[in-house]
Amino acid sequence: MRLTILTEGDKKLRKKSVPVNQPFTSELQDFIKDMIETMYQADGVGLAAPQVGHNLRLFVVASKKGPLVMINPALSKKSLRKQIEEEGCLSVPGVYGLVKRHRSVTVTYLDKRGEKQVQRAEGFFSRVIQHETDHLDGILFIERAHKITKAGGKPVTNL
Ligand code: ZN
Questions:
Q1: Protein residues with C-beta less than 5 angstroms from the ion ligand 1
Q2: Overall pTM surpassing 0.85 (yes/no)
């Protein structure tokens, strides 16, 4: 089932989300499936739960190996080196901006079975994870962007 993506101005996008409690229910599994479907149908590379109206610490990411689900993610070992790239967001349609992000981060999270995973992310993947984690803290990329590059153009990356 395709979910409605909230856009800037909705208060749920500005709230700090709460951790997902275990055990993970079948309702949660259905919600994850819906999030993945919604992300792909919207041509997004990532989608966080608050973007579809649930203030839970969970997001989905499209990877070459298929969709990844990260529940209760925590970032550590953020590289000192940062990179500036253009990014966009499904919740801020038509707006893009240059955002400085850590080149690499380590993300510790629970997968959909509730098993702990640790992953090192670099480059674009690292950027997506930082963008989605920001959503869980009520932060939109436009607050971090030091330059808005274009409005109404072709999407570069919608996260
Ligand atoms: Zn976003």
A1: 89, 159
A2: yes
Question: Which strands, in side-by-side order, build the sheet including 46-48?
Answer: 46-48, 58-63, 66-76, 104-110, 116-122
Q: Please identify which residue in the block is written with the tokens 């709460």.
A: 18
**Ligand 1 centroid – CA 137 distance (Å):** 12
List active site positions.
132
Distances from the Cα of 143 to the Cαs of 2, 22, 92, in angstroms?
28, 32, 12
Token pair, residue 66, equals: 């298929």
Amino acid, res. 153:
G
* Residue 18 CA, ligand 1 centroid: distance in Å: 18
pLDDT (tens, 9 = 90+) of the chain, 159 residues, equals 999 999 999 999 999 999 999 999 999 999 999 999 999 999 999 999 999 999 999 999 998 899 999 999 999 999 999 999 999 999 999 889 999 999 999 999 999 999 999 999 999 999 999 999 999 999 999 999 988 877 555 556 677
Contacts of 141 (CB under 8 A, 6+ apart): 87, 88, 89, 92, 97, 99, 131, 134, 159
Question: Environment class of residue 120 by beta-carbon count within 10 Å: exposed (0-12), middle (13-18) or buried (19+)?
Answer: exposed
